[in-house]
Specification:
This protein is 56% helix and 13% strand. The protein is α/β, with parallel strands linked by helices and 135 residues long. Helix 1 runs parallel beside helix 3 (51-70) and helix 3 (51-70) crosses helix 5.
């Protein structure tokens, strides 16, 4: 990752990520730790020009929507707060579709390659289904 790409990541961390984190925390009803594995998200800098616009759609919007759907009542809120310990965002396994989400030992791992950016509904469905089965 070169200087230009590091600047994009720094800008995202400073100016975009705080608002996305706030949306996730509000949807969950508590402060959810988020770990982003930037080296894995930036491994192909051919897409660096669209990272800032695509990362929210790929990773964060599905979480907000799924959390809102799960937390529609006290039962869902209590289940999420008692089981979810952190979210890890990465692109390590080079997967997409339903396989992009795992939930183990309180860690929600979102592992999606840089593709199908606009297919938010599929990601929401697989994320929500995975969580609801585990909660």
């Amino acid at each position: 990752m070169g200087l230009a790409e590091r600047r994009i990541v720094k800008n995202f961390e400073t100016n975009v990520l705080p608002g996305l984190k706030q949306q996730i925390d509000e949807a969950a009803g508590f402060d959810v730790p988020i770990e982003v594995k930037w080296d894995s998200l930036t491994k192909d800098d051919a897409y660096s020009g669209s990272w800032t616009e695509s990362w929210p759609t790929l990773y964060f919007q599905p979480v907000v929507i799924a959390f809102k759907n799960i937390c529609i009542d006290d039962m869902g809120k209590e289940a999420l707060v008692s089981h979810l310990k952190k979210i890890v965002i990465q692109d390590v396994k080079d997967v997409y579709g339903a396989e992009w989400v795992t939930f183990e030992d309180g860690t929600l791992t979102l592992d999606h390659r840089f593709c199908n950016v606009d297919d938010v509904d599929t990601r929401v469905q697989s994320l929500q289904t995975t969580l609801e089965k585990a909660l």
